[in-house]
Amino acid sequence: MRVVIAGAGSVGRSIASELLANDHDVVLVDKNPSAMRVSQVPDADWVLADACETSSLDGADVSSADVVVGATGDDKVNLVFSLLSKTEFAVPRTVARVNNPRNEWMFDESWGVDVAVSTPRIMTAMVEEAVSVGDLVRIFTFHQSGADILEVTLPEESPLVGLRVSDVVWPPDVVLACVVRGIRPFSPTPDDALEAGDELMLVTGQESDPDMLQRLVVDGPELG
């Protein structure tokens, strides 16, 4: 996968390092010469240019990117970069960093953003997760589809504890994507039994009913 990242600050370099470790091709774009710390991410391609200019993006060959990431500390730059990448270069997937939570409402498909990543939102979700065993916590929202990733930690008294995954009749538009048990995440099979303390990662569509899902955890499912 080829990824172009706008912003070669600490966030951009960290993302680049992770992607390179997973054998992806990475290009870092930044207009600030002091950000060109090539020795810190030597395996990336570096471009000294303005990510808000089409000529710069053309020079970085953004049209061949599978994903672009707006990782600068300036929300305006991340939005313009995403919009240009999507509309001018037809990049399939755009991810943008939200620095100011008050700007989060703009990071949607109208600005070419497929996935908006807000650090305050994620941190809030992590805090809520730590104090709300048994309650649904929204971890992430995909702006393009409107789908959510929800997390719920099964309390000991949950009727789901001890049931096989195949015995749970999930509400419409809900998919159990992952179970985290202790420190081990795994993709559940129909024969896996749920245990107290399991963290369930659920993907829900726009039509899903969070209240129905919450009741499932508290009151139990119909058995198939």
From TrEMBL:
Superkingdom of origin organism: Bacteria
Residue span(s) of domain RCK C-terminal: 137-219
Entry annotated with the keyword Ion transport: yes
Domain RCK N-terminal: 1-117
UniProt cross-references to Pfam families, sorted A to Z: TrkA_C, TrkA_N
SUPFAM superfamilies per record: NAD(P)-binding Rossmann-fold domains, TrkA C-terminal domain-like
Gene3D superfamilies with a match to the protein in the record: NAD(P)-binding Rossmann-like Domain, Regulator of K+ conductance, C-terminal domain
UniProt cross-references to PROSITE patterns, sorted A to Z: RCK_C, RCK_N
The keyword NAD is annotated on this UniProt entry: yes
Keywords annotated in UniProt: Ion transport, NAD, Potassium, Potassium transport, Transport
InterPro entries, alphabetized: K_uptake_TrkA (IPR006036), NAD(P)-bd_dom_sf (IPR036291), RCK_C (IPR006037), RCK_C_sf (IPR036721), RCK_N (IPR003148), Trk_Ktr_HKT_K-transport (IPR050721)
Protein name: Trk system potassium uptake protein TrkA
Protein source organism: Isoptericola halotolerans
